[in-house]
Amino acid sequence: MSYDIIVIGSGPGGYVAAIRASQLGKKVAIVEKAELGGICLNWGCIPTKALLKSAQVFKYLNHAEDFGLNKPSDISFEFGNVVARSRGVADRMSKGVQFLMKKNNIEVIQGAAQVLPGKKVKVTAADGTSKEIAAENIIIATGARSRELPSLPQDGKKVIGYRGALAMEKQPKSMIVVGSGAIGVEFAHFYNTLGTDVTIVEYLPRIVPVEDEDISKQLQLSLKKSGIKILTNAEVTGVDTTGDLVKATVKTAKGEEILEAEVVLSAAGVVPNTENLGLEAVGIATERGKIVINDFCETSVKGYYAIGDVVKGADLAHLASAQGILCVEHIAGEKVEAIDYGNIPGCTYCSPEIASVGMTEAQAKEAGYEVKVGKFPFSANGKAVANGAADGFVKVVFDAKYGEWLGCHMIGDGVTEMIAEAVAARKLETTAHEIMKSVHPHPTMSEAIMEAVEDAYGHAIHI
After folding, report:
1. Looking at 189, 318, 440, 442, which residue is catalytic?
2. Separation of CA 252 from chain center
3. Residue limits of the Pyridine nucleotide-disulphide oxidoreductase dimerisation domain (predicted)?
4. Phi and psi (nearest 5°) for 440?
5. Could you report how far apart the first and last alpha carbons of the chain are, in Å?
6. What is the DSSP secondary structure assignment for residue 148, as one 8-state letter?
7. 318 included as an active-site residue
C-alpha cells in the first residue's frame, strides 16, 4: 500500500498536516493507535476547557449578588456530571476529526506505528497483526505524555497525571499539585473552585516560571486569594501511598515537611513519544529525546519529517498545527516561510487567565535591549470593571532604540482571546505609534493593550 504522505499521529499537528496534504492533491494515510484528535482533543486542551467552564459557571452562581442578582438558594453539582460533560465535549470534537478525515479522503489506519528504512511504516493493530505501508514522505507527529518523576511514581489512583485528573470518579477533598505550569495551575484552579483543598508545590522560585515575573506575582496573589496554598522553591522527594491519605515529603528552604492529601497530581510537564518508533534503525537523529529537524521540519533522513511535541519548540497545539501546514506545503513545493518561534503565543486558562508572546522584560534586558515598558491595569478598564473582572493587567515591552515590540504579557479575564492582536502586530513589525493610532472599540478589554502601549511612551490617558 503506497501513499504520497503517511502521517503518524492524529493530534492537532498530525490531522491538520493530513488535511492540508489532501487539499494539495496528495494521497494521504494517517496512522493512529488511539482516538482521532490525539491528546489535545481527547485528554488535553479541549476537555480541560470544558471542566474550567463548569467551574466558571459555578463561581458565577456563587457570586450572583456581586452582579445585583439574588443568589440561588441551592447551588450544588454532581461531580460525575461535570466530568461527563467534559468527556462529551472531547468525544464530539474527536468525531469532528473523523468527519474531516472522510471529507478529505484521508485513509485512517488504526494501530501503533514504527518507521522503517526505505520510507516504510509498520503498523501493528490491537490484535497483534501487522502490515507495512509506504510513502514518498513520512511525517512523525506522535505527541507527548505526562512526565513521570522518579520521586513521584504514578499509580493512577492516589498519584495521577493529567489524564487521571480529567476523569476522576469522585471529587477529592484535598489535592497536592506538583508543578505550576499551565497544566498544574489550570487543574489547581478547577478543583479549588469546586471546593477541593489544593496545595501547589513548585520546584522553582515562582509559579508559572516561563511567564514574565510580574505575571507570576499577580497570579500567585490571585490564587492565594482564592484559597490555594502555594509552596515555591520546594521539591517533592517522595510519597507514601499506604494510608488513606497520600503523604508527600516536601523539601523546602526551611527543611522537610510532610503534606497530606487524598490525591497528588503530577503536573511536571510532558515527555515526547519517541520511544519504540524505529528512529535508530532509520538513522533519524534525536537530541534530549526530541527529533532534530531543520526549518522545514525535515529530519536528518530525507523523506522523514517530524512536527509537534516530538521536536523543538514549546509543546503547544497551535505550534504543532503550524508546523504541520509548513511541512506539507514544503513537501508539495510551495514557497514557505520558516516559523518564527519567538512569536508563538502561550495561553494558560486558570482564573485569571494568562496570555503572552515574545520576550519577558528580563529576557529583553538579558539580550542587551534598552527597553520601554508599559503597563495598564484592568481596574482602570471600564469593560473589565463592568464584568466584575478587574484583577490583572496588560504589560508591553518595546526596544527603546528602534521601537520593536519585543513582548506582550497579559493576566486577566478573557485575555487568551486578546493576545492574537499582539502576535499579528509583531508579525507585521507594527510600531508603538501604529498601535496607539489604531482606534480600539470602547468599551472593550482590548483597549488595555492600546493603553499599555501609550503608557510605555508616556501617553497614557486613564492612569
Report:
1. 442
2. 28
3. 344-452
4. -95, 140
5. 66
6. -
7. no
